[in-house]
Amino acid sequence: MTTPAQISEQYFTAWQTGDFDTLRGLLADDVDFVGALGRASGVEECLAGLRGMGRMLERIEVHARVADDTDVITWFDLHTAGGAAPAPTANWSHVENGRITRIRVTFDPREILATLDR
Questions:
Q1: pTM of the predicted model, to two decimals?
Q2: Is 96 helix (H, G, I), strand (E, B) or coil?
Q3: 97's torsion region: left (phi>0), alpha (psi -120 to 50) or beta?
């Protein structure tokens, strides 16, 4: 059986490489996302948001991942195109029956947003 930590690792790898078929398989149909730049309800909205952010994504530098039987917190630097400094980011994912059901992400988006205005 795949652990929540392994699912989280697969999620970040798939997002970074643009493998949205794998991402779809990791997300529950009713996944709920709340983050600094938006909200999404359901797998289609969540994938659309991940695709949008993926267009700005250069890489993810994971520093730590802490997990238990259902929850994973990943601490990473979000590197984006456009010259913004890497954004220190915390991502909490809740896993049920092998799929991510809830995602909460927090980071300071000001520098990323400023690069979009240039």
A1: 0.93
A2: strand
A3: left
pLDDT digits (tens, 9 = 90+) for 11-59: 999 999 999 999 999 999 999 999 999 999 999 999 999 999 999 999 9
Strand order in the sheet with 57-67: 38-41, 27-35, 99-106, 87-96, 71-80, 57-67
> Is residue 16 helix, strand or coil?
helix
Q: Name the CATH topology of 4-92+102-117.
A: Nuclear Transport Factor 2; Chain: A, (3.10.450)
Residue 44's nearest CA partner among 58, 17, 23 is 23
CA-only gyration radius of the chain, Å = 14
